Amino acid sequence: MQGRKLSLAIGLALSSTYLSADESSSEDTVEKIVVVSSRVATPLREVATSISVVTQDDIERRGYISLADILKVQPGVNATNSGGVGSTSALRVRGEEGYRTLVRVDGVDISDPTGTQVQTQVAHLLSSNITRVEILRGTQGLVYGADAGGVINIHTGQQNEALFGSVSAEGGRFDTRNIAGEIGGGLGGVDYYVSASDYNTNGFNSSVNDLIDADSDGYSNTTIHARFGYQINDDLRLGVVARSNDGEGKFDSCGFGASFSNFCTTNFQQNNLRINAEYTLGSTEHELAFVKTLVERENVNQGVSSFFTKGHVERVEYVGNADISDNSHVIWGFDWEQEVISSANQARTQKGYYLEYQSEVLSDTFVTAGLRYDDNEDFGERVSYRLSAAKLWEVKGGELKLRGAYGTGFRAPSIFEIEYNRGPFAFAPASETSLKEEQTKGYELAVAYATEAGSSYEIVYFDQKIEDSIFFDLAGFSGYLQDIGTSFSEGVELIVNQQLADELVLTANYTYNDTEDTAGEQRLRRPEHLANIGLSYQFDQLSFAANMRFVRDFVDVGTALPNYDVVDVSARYKFDNGVSVFVRVENAFDTEYQDLEAFNTAGSALNVGVKYSF
Fold this sequence. Notes:
Layout: H1 2-17, E1 33-34, E2 42-43, E3 50-55, H2 56-62, H3 67-71, E4 77-81, E5 89-93, E6 102-105, E7 108-109, E8 111-112, E9 119-120, E10 130-137, E11 150-156, E12 164-172, E13 176-187, E14 190-204, E15 217-231, E16 236-251, E17 264-281, E18 284-301, E19 304-323, E20 328-341, E21 346-362, E22 365-376, E23 380-395, E24 398-411, H4 415-422, E25 438-451, E26 456-472, E27 480-499, E28 504-516, E29 529-539, E30 542-552, E31 554-556, E32 559-561, E33 564-574, E34 579-586, E35 605-613
Parallel strand pairs: 6-11
Antiparallel strand pairs: 1-2, 3-10, 4-5, 6-7, 8-9, 10-11, 12-13, 12-35, 13-14, 14-15, 15-16, 16-17, 17-18, 18-19, 19-20, 20-21, 21-22, 22-23, 23-24, 24-25, 25-26, 26-27, 27-28, 28-29, 29-30, 30-33, 31-32, 33-34, 34-35
């Protein structure tokens, strides 16, 4: 078993040091190791939950500035925003709310405690210097927290002793400019990685209702990310991750009555720090980490501050894992978290403990059983669990996999939701509503087939239910209400990765997502049909990618939005001296469409750039 653990460690190291191989290649071992399912390195073939992996090559080929644009071409993922890069955005996995999706960058939870719900400000998360993304789809985020209805696990840079780095510059429509750089390496047990990016765009008029001023709603973003590690000896490693994200944008429609304006700005500042220690003792591995997040947000109406909030999160987390036999493994841990909205003198703590058993009960038959206990300061004790199983068979020309998973969870109302209903802006019925926790449960069943030539095919059925979901009263604007009863999201994902030739790969996914609230109505902003068809071509130093996205049957507040198809294309040429040039056309056919009823989209946009890597 020690040899198996060593191979997993090597595989995990490879996944963070070299990510340029195409994931469809049968020779590629990089994609075979994932950490997102249980927070320890696990061969992907043994995992019974639904996981997608986005490589550095995927990110570079598609070229999107916003990480949300990269994620929404993955199966089961949809993203909406209120007017381009930097505008308020929501990332929904299998039709669930964005605040049920946890996002981590190099182990740092980047959730914002000052928002209406505790969630990641996806709008400010750009793709520069990101090398790998693992996506856990579904309500099986046991080891991350009972409210994790999906997990986005992001990796940056590499981790090796060789000096490496890159610098890139890009420009395009709306006077868009993006400059990014990175450098890393290691020496004598010390490794480091530092990256920075600076993005600016004049934007476009995002609001459908802004017909008089029709001003452009620009955005700027500066992100600095650093990671340092020190291997003290064979058994002990110390690490630090520091991150700063500063975004500033313009938007329309702020204020009420006489104070209403289309000249509004938003400022967002988030700083993250994570300090961790990893210790190996025999067959047991331990990691202890302290994480702190500081957030400030301010909305300004015509130069006069109209809304300011400030807060922080402190989190202590421990995860351990050990072999208990040649075929069995156990993972355990705890987390303690305090959320604070300091601008309103509000705070709350929650602590959780979890245990998961993993075993190969028979040859190529893998099962897990996990239990989690949470104690929330306001809503008391809750127990949730996850069960999963996967069976593999060797068949002629490949491998067949049958898998399934079931998980439960809960989400306590956020501090903001509770206090808003108690505050001066709420009125009946919200002011008379005592919010209680949401409870979730969901399961999935899947069949997958992978060929020796590198192609793969998968069909997944999922069924997720939310009891007593919390929502904002968009009809009367009274505050937050509870939708007493069961809302659900169920459907099918079809996923194809077809190696058409050595140089040509077809990727395709289709998601059918049937959603209903307790009144039997389709849940807002959740398309019933989502599909992506992509082609990538690699010939020597030239690469080409194209993607067509189909969106069908979705509704916003009070209206059904038109169906649409959007085509994006990109090309890149790499010279022998480390220089590459690239071009990207988003919405190549200038399709007019909307993701939200009140907001425009950008139309066709051409971007060109250059990158030097060493």
